[in-house]
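Quick one before lunch.
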Amino acid sequence: MEKPQVELREDVKSYLEATFLAETEEGDKCRLSFRRLLEVLASPPLYTTLRVNMLKLSSQEIKAIINEELTMIYKSKNWDPPQIFLHPSLEDVLVIENRGPLQIKEMEKEVVIDHRCGMAVLRGADIFVQGIIGAPANMMSGDMVSVYIDLEGKYLKGDMQPLGGSRFHVGNGVAQLSRDDIFKTKPTPSGVGILMSEPLYEAPCLSDLRPDLILAQNLPSIICTHVLDPQPGERILDMCAAPGGKTTHIASKMKNKGEVIAIDRSDHKVDKIRSNLEKWGLTCVTCYACDALRISVVPAGGNLNFPEFPAEYFDRILLDVPCSALGQRPSLKNHITLNSLKSYSGYQRKFMRKAVQLLRPGGVLVYSTCTVTLEENEKQVVWVLENFPDLQLTAQVPNLGSPGRRCSGLSKNLQQLLQVFDPSCVESRDNMAVYNKDTIGFFIAKFTKMKS
Ligand code: SAH
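Model of the S-adenosyl-L-homocysteine complex:
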């Protein structure tokens, strides 16, 4: 059977393929890897990584607790026990090996869910009522049903009959409510609507699982904060912080001592950062809902009124910029337009200009994206080095990714200083463990501001 590929608009696909080809020496190999990339993006990473709260307990202790809890959950679903281990080189990371794709039978009763919900299911989630679009009239609580993602948006909320169009089978589960409970009760019920018992991929369902001790985070995102390397007592700026995965990591690494400023544009997303910090007992962070580009840089000295900060105020800045997010996995469709795709790099440069003014000489700036385009990644680095002569590209620790891709203006030596996670290369990077390679697509560059 042909492997599914992420569905992109045709013009976006041609554009991406052309830039990939232009920057590669062996065109054919790249064409192969572009197809491979589209396939890999459609499937979930085969490992779930959890960052553990070492301010509460040791990694070993947390591993034992999570192992016990997950073993119980897996047992109740009739699955083999989970395989959990500590990451050999990252002290605060637990790795869980998932299983799939598995063979699953199609049941008579069919439930249709939206794409977003389907992506969560492929990474281990159960199905919340809000994600359900359609269910058969005779569906009762306790029924075993097959669950499909509606790939074409052809179903209307509450539909009973499949309307055709392409769908994707993500597994089977047990309905927790009847169809009438879901679509006819007011107010609409919340909570789990279908408990997945035979998913396409067996992966841990982490909602409500010891949120004080673990946070599910993709491996490259965890590495990103290790590369930033914040120290207790420092002043750190996290410019695009929500939902705060990296913010909680920064504050934890600082042992909750120092001053962290976390900014995000959206109010409700900033609430999410605050709630994540609270769960982990972290208090050294001040969160602001604000457009980070509106920070005004003022001379040191006088009184400060947010969003004012003195020039060169911060020791380290994390710039985890808004990006086209094409590295996110799994994704069966992404209908981003070409114009929108092309607009990101200009937007990202604005953050970079602001960050450079706020960084002290000797300070560290980490730029990261969860996408795969050269424009938002390697080409941004070339632009930074051309426009900010006092920024120097710096080696990263740890570095578990691959070097940057070839790009005009970037020497081989500079490529080596970058850290790229490209899941389409899973087979080719020999001496690296699979859990370090089978990740989302991600890019990290580290700069140091030179002292004049
Ligand atoms: N660092 C986060 C993920 C950030 S994703 C984590 O690790 O959890 C990029 C974020 O940038 C989004 O949450 C988006 O709301 C935010 N963003 C976009 N434009 C912004 C702006 N002008 N100012 C501040 N935040 C912005």
